[in-house]
């Protein structure tokens, strides 16, 4: 069973709402983990993270005056961790949406779909999913736990990647409107992560892959599948019956349309059963189907306790590590605990960028950066040391990047990541390398004053016509 701990659960549900999400709320994204243990992959397994986001949440911009259209820009990343909490692999992507007018961007019920995927050895994993609106800087975070990648077994019938979808159609080769990331076995599959559907949806589609099919006689060279649906209370049941499919080989895809028109909002279970008629081998899979009723959208900004009060003394000290001058750091280190608290309170009062408000907004922003750095840049998932890494230091000083380029498998050299900040002075760039291949990225080049400068990297970036001098 896969558990999802979301830092924006309410926002994920709002992604299905009929109206736009206010800009003050976290970004609403729905995601899950799907695993495939096809013997065709050899000893590895495939993990996929389908993503769904409501377009009305995104901020659109016009890149230049010669193009009349408006565009959104979304960054998505998945980082996979082993049972010790160490990062073992990652994948990321940018994707965009285009509209003719800003009014069009706010049309309700327009969803964007994408997917991240990784090939990994069999085992147990967890994953952190990050999605950022690169224009507004609003973000989504989710931790997916208990991801089990089984060992492929060509001698046993198995079901891989069972999922529900909003749409399944034949993928036309070369079609301009088809995202190839969403194509499975020649089918265009728009996943419904976590089985979430709105009360206005009329059809849910089931997709799954079969492995370990045996070749039999002409009369037994087929498989059969059945789908049943029931609610959590046991008062509702639908049996869609059995259907047969001819084996194209040792693997096959199964699809099934489920009519959910006028079904009450609530939680249902979809049960898939498959029988290989060559040897009567069977396999089963179960997945949730959640129908969400109308969701009221709050337009106000809720107040709350000051997040600074929940920090430990050590975290409060770490929060200002990159803000204090050397003399201030020396003074702070000499104080007892009570003195440190007084010093820090005085520091923030003196550096409040808007003393007319009750909150210290710049301190709130620093706390957000501190927590983000710990969540994303810590070497181990359970540690809170990301703020002390090179990536954490730059993130805390400069905040979210304007653009990010990930190159996990360069033709030459180590994996590297480039962060671009277009609004800082004349534009600043930071290059991080992963010299040991363990996702511990080190800053190797920047054009920012006081940071490490590497002429070889500067020349390389100039040759690629990137924004650096």
From TrEMBL:
Keyword Signal appears in the UniProt entry: yes
NCBIfam families: GWxTD_dom
InterPro entries: GWxTD_dom (IPR030959)
Annotated GWxTD domain residues: 317-459
Listed Pfam families: GWxTD_dom
Keywords: Signal
Protein name per UniProt: GWxTD domain-containing protein
Signal peptide range in chain numbering: 1-22
Organism listed in the record: candidate division GN15 bacterium
């Amino acid at each position: 069973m896969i558990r999802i701990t979301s830092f924006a659960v309410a926002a994920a549900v709002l992604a299905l709402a009929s109206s736009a999400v206010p800009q003050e709320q976290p970004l609403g994204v729905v995601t899950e983990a799907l695993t495939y243990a096809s013997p065709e992959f050899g000893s590895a397994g495939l993990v996929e993270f389908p993503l769904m986001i409501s377009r009305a949440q995104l901020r659109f911009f016009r890149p230049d005056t010669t193009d009349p259209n408006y565009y959104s820009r979304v960054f998505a990343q998945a980082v996979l961790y082993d049972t010790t909490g160490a990062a073992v692999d990652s994948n990321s992507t940018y994707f965009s949406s285009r509209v003719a007018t800003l009014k069009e961007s706010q049309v309700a019920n327009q969803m964007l779909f994408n997917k991240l995927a990784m090939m990994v050895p069999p085992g147990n994993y967890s994953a952190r999913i990050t999605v950022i609106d690169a224009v507004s800087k609003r973000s989504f975070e989710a931790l997916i736990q208990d991801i089990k990648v089984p060992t492929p077994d060509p001698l046993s019938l198995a079901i891989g990647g069972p999922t529900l979808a909003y749409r399944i159609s034949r993928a036309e080769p070369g079609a301009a409107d088809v995202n190839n990331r969403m194509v499975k076995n020649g089918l265009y599959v728009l996943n419904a992560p976590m089985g979430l559907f709105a009360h206005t949806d009329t059809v849910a589609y089931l997709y799954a892959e079969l492995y370990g099919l045996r070749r039999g006689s002409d009369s037994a060279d087929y498989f059969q599948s059945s789908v049943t649906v029931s609610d959590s209370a046991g008062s509702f049941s639908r049996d869609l019956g059995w259907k047969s499919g001819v084996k194209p080989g040792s693997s096959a895809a199964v699809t099934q349309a489920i009519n959910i028109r006028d079904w009450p909002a609530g939680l249902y279970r979809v049960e898939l059963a498959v029988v290989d008629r060559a040897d009567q081998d069977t396999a089963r899979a179960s997945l949730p189907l959640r129908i969400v009723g109308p969701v009221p959208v709050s337009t106000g900004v809720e107040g709350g306790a000051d997040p600074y009060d929940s920090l430990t003394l050590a975290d409060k000290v770490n929060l200002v590590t990159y803000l204090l001058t050397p003399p201030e750091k020396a003074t702070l280190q000499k104080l007892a605990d009570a003195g440190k608290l007084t010093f820090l309170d005085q520091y923030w009062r003196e550096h409040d960028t808007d003393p007319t408000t009750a909150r210290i907004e710049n301190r709130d922003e620093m706390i957000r950066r501190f927590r983000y750095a710990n969540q994303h840049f810590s070497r181990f998932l359970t540690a809170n040391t990301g703020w002390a890494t090179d990536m954490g230091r730059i993130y805390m000083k400069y905040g979210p990047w304007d653009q990010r380029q990930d190159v996990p498998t360069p033709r030459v050299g180590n994996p590297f990541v480039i962060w671009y900040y277009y609004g800082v002075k004349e534009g600043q760039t930071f290059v991080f390398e992963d010299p040991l291949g363990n996702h511990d990225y080190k800053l190797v080049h920047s054009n920012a004053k006081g940071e490490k400068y590497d002429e070889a990297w500067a020349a390389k970036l100039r040759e690629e016509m990137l924004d650096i001098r």
